[in-house]
Design a protein that fits this description.
14 helices, three-stranded antiparallel beta sheet, 5 strands, mainly alpha
Amino acid sequence: MEHAHREALIALLAHHALHISHLPALNDIILQHENILSAVYRKKPLFYKMLFKYFRFYTASAIFSIYYCQPTPSLKFAKALITRQHKSISINTLNSLFTLLSVSGRIDIYRQPDNSGDYFYRPTESVKQEISDLIASLLIPWQGSSQKPPVFLPADISARLPQFFKRYGDFIFQQITLVGILPECSLFIEKDAGHMIMLILYTESIRQDCARILISPRKIARYSHVSRSHVDGVLKAAQDAGYLSVENNLFITLSGTFIALFRRYFSLYLAQILYAFDLLPET
């Protein structure tokens, strides 16, 4: 039964993503997403470049999904659930992420008077706003492409996070990941700032109206707030895989395979957000 539910959810997500990928306004949605997200990213680049390595992003999503789906979850419960479901996530990695979220003021860790043996956690207002900003970078552009009145205003999103995570938790508890559905994208998004690197490549091809774009690895590094050597490594792996070619550190030619990969990846990403708010992708 669980397997059947998981497969049905993956099929639904893929169906919605396919519809999104054929939207005439998809490039406009992506450009507006980039505009909103890059402004958010610039405010806290050290945190976001770390978060935008997919396994960290997924683990953080799991931490907050567990909080909203389980009554008063303890740290022990959350860690046990995540490491049991995802053997590749070590307890040391998980402890480091919880420590980062706590020290940076994104979660409160506390004890309850009637249970002094366990530590519990809850999101702070600051992280709720950060999560809302990330959601808005996808939801608001999608709404703008529709002829219908907006379902959400940016200010509404934070109050609806319990609703969002109770459905987003379906992906977490069924162990559904973007890299599981689309393993090819892991070459990019399993690297620090991977989403931003893919995003600037694709959006520059739209703005320059050409697959051969004038952009240097140095510019990508500045945009993503990572080192030049990090970008060089990602581009070399992508070039070896046939996604792009780098010319004299001045031009990058994107293959049709890269364009198709990014559109499918973005469509799946947006489809998850719409599902979590119980929205259909039809506009």
